Amino acid sequence: MENPFKNIDQPLQEVPQELKGKVMHDIAMAKLLMELAELFSYNIGHIIDSVTSKRK
Q: What domain of life does the native source organism fall in (predicted)?
């Protein structure tokens, strides 16, 4: 197995457009899922807070 750290000081190579597109799509999907999870978690927290404050 080749040592990957030998290539650290080499000049950067261009990444293929297909790979760039796939990575950007995956990042966009992950960001969307994180934003949806954040949206629902904040709303559930607000609902729980409002229900407990109305019970008092």
A: Bacteria
